[in-house]
Amino acid sequence: MRPTVGLAVHTAGGPVLPWSFERRDPRPHDVAVAITYCGVCYSDVEAVRGAREPNLPLVPGHEFVGRVSAVGDLVTSFRVGDSVAVGNCVDSCGACEECLAGQQNHCTDGGPTLTYLGVDRHDGRRTQGGWSTEYVADEAWVYRLPDGLDPAPAAPLLCAGITSWEALRHWEIGPGSTIGIVGIGGLGHLGVKFAKALGAEVVAFTLTPENVADIKALGADDVVVSSDPDALAAQARRFDFILDTASRAHDLSPYLRALRLHGTMCLLGIPPTVEVETRALRVGRHSLAGSGTGSPARVREMLDFCAEHGIVADVDVLPSTQLATALDRLERGDVKYRLVLDLADLTERAS
């Protein structure tokens, strides 16, 4: 077993504290990754605040980068010292229709194994996440970090990035497409960068007028202040596709009316509720869809695209000692646009 230090929730409602635990020794196709940077996602906040038995202690974190520290006997894709990244899934059944079609992210045998709050398919142990000094995963779910990508801002590509990329690629966004992006946070700001680099006309929707200049600096061709009902109504029949990354409850109807004939609105955020006026779907034969993370092949495709176009997340990097600050900032929405933990100090913090 491999000694590891993580940042864990130990009691329901309690703080996140250093915890010494053990990772498995690499299996024949495993890669051990010494983690340098790990993103802090809003789903991590929810996991921390909602942590309960039997999932305690719990180490969150599911978008991280690092260097290979060991490899299994049959690994041929990586060597010790390689720069790599790991995302929010680390295994799947490999045998269902979806897995055989290369859509392991939609595995129907219990879903893909999550980086944390999952169950290892081989030994039955609960998975612990990337707020830690090391992770061990099958080489099929470990990704080479291309040269030229700065590791810290590349880390969020493995969750926020692939979630936006998967939808844009599935709906074949590119030259000639006019797309809207609702919610310019972790997912949305990368959606703007991706869509622009793919050749689309990109329009961002924000509730905050003060953010217009910053959003245009990301590459948006236009910004609509959606808290202005007249500005929102003026977008009628403008878009081929709308990517909705908002996590708060909201009415989808004005955005559906902004779609052209046969247009699609895709939900990436996970709001507790949404409102939909059915007429806004029927008139124009609009489609309302959902999407999530991507397959390993899509992740590799995205990383290569990012290296080619110089795309990484806009991040604030904080030492692991400031994790509580990071969680509080995320809850307040005080982030532009992603937070990343520098885990260099974590070993010394072990109790």
* Residue runs with pLDDT of under 50 for 5 or more positions: none
Number of helices: 12
> Class of the largest domain, according to the CATH hierarchy?
Alpha Beta
Averaging pLDDT over every residue, what do you get? Answer: 95
The CATH superfamily label of the largest domain reads: Medium-chain alcohol dehydrogenases, catalytic domain
Structural class: alpha/beta
CATH architecture of the largest domain: Alpha-Beta Complex
Q: How many distinct beta strands?
A: 19
Largest sheet: 7 strands, mixed
Report, as a whole number of angstroms, the end-to-end distance: 19 Å
Estimate the helix proportion, in percent: 25-40%
Strand content: 25-35%
The rough form would be described as globular
Instruction: List the domain count as a whole number.
Output: 2
Radius of gyration: 20 Å
According to CATH, the fold-level topology of the largest domain is: Quinone Oxidoreductase, Chain A, domain 1
